[in-house]
Write a structure and sequence with these properties.
Elements lengths: L11 H9 L1 E2 L3 E2 L8 E7 L2 E9 L14 H15 L7 E4 L6 E5 L9 H4 L4 H14 L9 E3 L5 E3 L26 H13 L6 H6 L4 H17 L17
Antiparallel strand pairs: 1-3, 2-3, 3-4, 4-6, 5-6, 7-8
Length: 245
């Protein structure tokens, strides 16, 4: 099966604007335990809506190193791109009103839609999302972290608590638990595995953002998912995030 990648739909100019455009007024969003701002970046008459998550706004977590959640947002974007799936909106690390943080393109979407309303219409996408979360070790896949964009495609957001070296998978997507991965999905994952440690590969990129143990654990999860060929079943005492939406 051919991946319908969206990785090349965005121009270099968009990434330049995202990374270096002048940041406007930051408006705090009402949801989430960390400080998350909706703002704009502007340059040469062009404007983008972005979600800005500064390092300074991160609440301490006992099981994640302090000040690293914004790096994990960017690492998740890199994983999505390395897979060729293009599910995570363009994301950069940049300075802003409240210091260094992640800046992610804001996705215009239908707020009535979420994982539970989308799963039967987008089965192939959800199989990929499930695999993505296993590899990224996503500890917080709420239903509303899966969006239906106004472009008609699936988008994934909120990846601050990912890539822990310790198993942390917590998600609402357990529909495929114990099922075998389709051959096409194993092949797509295998392409990433084969180039994981290549020069300029994902391991090198992640190594600038995560600890060595976290990069090694990512490689292990990817390889294990391919070799076992089965989606995991819930094993944690709390395997579903709260709230679900």
């Amino acid at each position: 099966m051919t991946v319908n990648s969206r990785s090349d739909r965005f121009s270099p100019q968009l990434f330049d604007l995202l990374a270096s455009g002048e940041m406007g007024e930051c408006r705090l969003t009402p949801d989430g335990s960390n400080y998350t701002f909706l703002t704009t970046v502007s340059q040469g008459g062009e404007h983008l809506k972005v979600i800005y998550k500064p390092r300074r706004g991160e609440m301490p977590l006992w099981d994640f190193p302090g000040g690293t959640l914004y790096l994990r947002e960017y690492a998740s974007y890199l994983l999505s791109e390395a897979l060729g799936w293009g599910y995570v909106p363009p994301t950069v690390i940049r300075d802003g009103e409240f210091g260094e943080g992640s800046a992610q393109l804001y996705v215009e979407c239908d707020r009535r839609e979420h994982y539970f309303t989308l799963r039967e219409r987008f089965v192939e996408d959800m199989l990929r999302v499930c695999a993505f979360d296993v590899v990224a070790n996503n500890a917080d896949r709420k239903a509303t972290h899966t969006l239906l964009g106004n472009d008609g495609g699936i988008w994934l957001i909120d990846h601050g608590i990912t890539f822990n070296a310790e198993y942390k998978l917590r998600t609402v997507i357990w529909d495929f638990a114990g099922q075998r991965l389709p051959r096409w999905l194993q092949d797509e994952l295998a392409t990433l595995r084969d180039g994981f440690d290549a020069p300029d590969g994902l391991a090198e990129s992640l190594g600038k953002l995560l600890s060595r143990a976290e990069v090694d654990a990512t490689r292990y999860r990817l390889t294990a998912l391919i070799d076992q060929g089965v989606f995991p079943i819930p094993t944690l005492r709390r395997a579903v995030p709260w709230p679900w939406l």
